[in-house]
Amino acid sequence: MKYTSNPHFALDSSRLIYGCMRITGDNSSDDRQKGKLAIRTAIDEGYNHFDHADIYGGGACESLFGELLKESPELREKMIITSKAGIRPRVSPTDYAPTRYDFSQRYILDSVEASLTRLGIEQLDMFLLHRPDFLMDAHEVAETFAKLKASGKVKAFGVSNFSHSQVELLRSVLPMPLVANQVEINIHNVDVFNNGVLDQCQQHGIMPIAWCPLGGVAYSAWGNTFSVADEQRIENELNQQAEKYQCQPWQVILAWLMCHPVGIMPIVGSTNPTRIADAKAALLLNYSREDWYRLFEARNGESVP
Ligand SMILES: NC(=O)c1ccc[n+]([C@@H]2O[C@H](COP(=O)([O-])OP(=O)(O)OC[C@H]3O[C@@H](n4cnc5c(N)ncnc54)[C@H](OP(=O)(O)O)[C@@H]3O)[C@@H](O)[C@H]2O)c1
Which residues does the UniProt record annotate as the domain NADP-dependent oxidoreductase (predicted)? Predict the structure, then answer.
């Protein structure tokens, strides 16, 4: 494993973050066991940064992680634990209130408290606002973050799925730095390479974290618009590069993300122990600029101008 230092964490963060969104599967006893094995494998393989959200498994993912920490409390101090809140799902199909985003102070403070209880810990190493609330009051968020910091419940703060201007707005009122922007980056969704988000990360030392890094190729991305011909062209290029680098096609995609000088940190979401371990091979590829553009061209179906 490789590690990245960040002054806002007590530990250097593993370059590959382990994503806990899938660790409870269908919440059957078998899937929960599989999830615990996945976490233990990640730990054994050197991952020390774990990504959660209050809504993963409806809270069950944080609870399962909390169970594991209760079994092995010594693990806590060797970990960076991130969680998110701000998406407020509709409770039942007949509920008057729809799924909505909610950055109101009461909701965020209660959500953090609930995450800490489920995880069985005193402090989140990092808290992220999950998706931009269309009704966000940046000053209220600043006050909420200040309270969470003062109470010791959160060490560092960041955002997820925020645009360049939404980050700028928060940065202008927050009494602390924004440490991360967790955004979708994969072969299907390449928006951040050209919408200012990665430039902003590079400019201000914000950690760019990539969710669903394999979306669009290893499995269907959200809102996938690739045609069969697109997929074939991308697969051909990936296969050629995998042969060149003596690795598997999905490892090429991780290397493609990580070769960007901003230092993208992919979140590995597999619950398959072999894939969790094998993802690390991507850290060793000496991936070239020419191959980055070849894959970009295959993805776009045309050369850059
Ligand atoms: N901030 C946000 O809005 C947001 C949104 C979504 C996710 N996230 C975070 O990002 C993390 C990662 O997302 P993700 O789970 O979508 O990541 P991912 O690592 O891109 O995808 C994992 C999924 O792809 C499958 N997979 C991986 N390699 C494969 C292969 N070679 N062939 C076929 N299937 C393959 C895995 O199945 P196996 O388990 O069988 O390997 C698993 O279902 C989540 O855990 C969560 O922490 C954040």
Answer: 15-295
